[in-house]
From TrEMBL:
Classification via Pfam families: GvpK
GO annotations of cellular component type: gas vesicle
Upper classification of the organism: Bacteria, Bacillati, Bacillota, Bacilli, Bacillales
Record protein name field: Gas vesicle protein GvpK
Region (Disordered): 1-21
Biological processes, Gene Ontology terms: gas vesicle organization
Keyword field: Coiled coil, Gas vesicle
InterPro entries per UniProt: GvpK
Coiled-coil ranges from the UniProt annotation: 60-87
The species this protein was found in: Pontibacillus marinus BH030004 = DSM 16465
Secretion signal span: none
Compartments in which it is found: Gas vesicle
Family under the similarity heading: Belongs to the gas vesicle GvpK family.
Amino acid sequence: MPMSDLEQKTPTSGRINLDPDKAEQGLGQLVLTVIELLRQLVERHAIRRVDGGTLSEEEIEKLGVALMNLEVKMDELKDIFELEDEDLNIDLGPLGNLL
């Protein structure tokens, strides 16, 4: 018998875990997924600006440090919620994976 979308899924299944007993991990997964999506968008925009020559050396340095710090913090939060990188790649059904 197939599981419905509202039943528990493992984090690695690519879906948000909606088990009421593990709501904290499911919410953490959702929040970290949104943060990771935004981080990737900011990183891509930063690369375009660096490649376009619109940033000073100091701005490039600050941006690099900020992105590295964000990556470290994301790793810490993934450890807290016991998530892996692939757990943040949510399955959007016919649209494919989010990340």
